[in-house]
Amino acid sequence: AQRFTVAIDGPAAAGKGTLAKLIAAHYGLPHLDTGLLYRAVGRKAADLGLDLDDPDAAGAVARSLTPSALDDGSLRGREAGELASRVAVHPSVRSALETFQRDFAGQPAGAVLDGRDIGTVIAPDAEVKIFVTASPEVRARRRTDELAAKGRAPDYERILAEVRERDLRDAGRATAPLKPAADAHLLDTSEMAIDAAFLAARELIDGFL
Ligand code: C5P
Predict the structure, then answer these.
(1) Across all residues in the chain, what is the average pLDDT?
(2) Are residues 130 and 194 in the same domain?
(3) Domain CATH code at residue 154
(4) In sequence order, what are the residues at sequence separation of 6 or more whose Cβ sits closer than 8 angstroms to the Cβ of residue 168?
(5) Stretch 178-195: mean pLDDT, rounded?
(6) Residue 1 pLDDT greater than 80, yes or no
(7) Distance between terminal CA atoms of the chain?
(8) Of 27, 104, 187, 209, whose CB has the highest number of CB atoms within 10 Å?
(9) Distance CA 14, CA 161 (A)
(10) CA 150 to ligand 1 centroid distance, Å
């Protein structure tokens, strides 16, 4: 079979992660959720009491990251996402995580990676690039519903404010800002359920194969 790499980028809560998992399972490709790397760095820096805005301190944490740090269940939560986006602005952090991601993207079996800069920086030669978006309101609504389904009592307005804040920080930073690669396919899931988004992604990939 032909090897290929799929780069999936987009803002928080657009459905990238779910889509990446479905694609990886369908095509039998290894999957890397790159947000987890930044989350682990943010979490560890915070646990150590370091200043998240200090590029040297955060960079040192990123260089010392080990795979076992990714197993922490709390990394999936909102707080870790916030910590991640603060340390992700530092070039020292981004470059420390780059080799691991590039190696993953280049492995002989092919790969699926999801993040913010996969199609632009980590795997600019990826055979298929998909930029997944949805309106901030739809993304905040999905997050709110997810939390409600877990028995929590989420505040939609507050989550919407967090979504907007994270968008601004991720798209506004100087290094590797969130933006579609020139050759990325845009997939707006605002009015699409996940199975429809998955079908659209498969059409793109099958069109390449
Ligand atoms: O995708 P996820 O929500 O887990 O990412 C958390 C944060 O990590 C993002 O808001 C972003 O600031 C950062 N990130 C990044 N580059 C990536 C993946 C995540 O800057 N490739």
Answers:
(1) 96
(2) yes
(3) 3.40.50.300
(4) none
(5) 95
(6) no
(7) 9
(8) 187
(9) 15
(10) 23
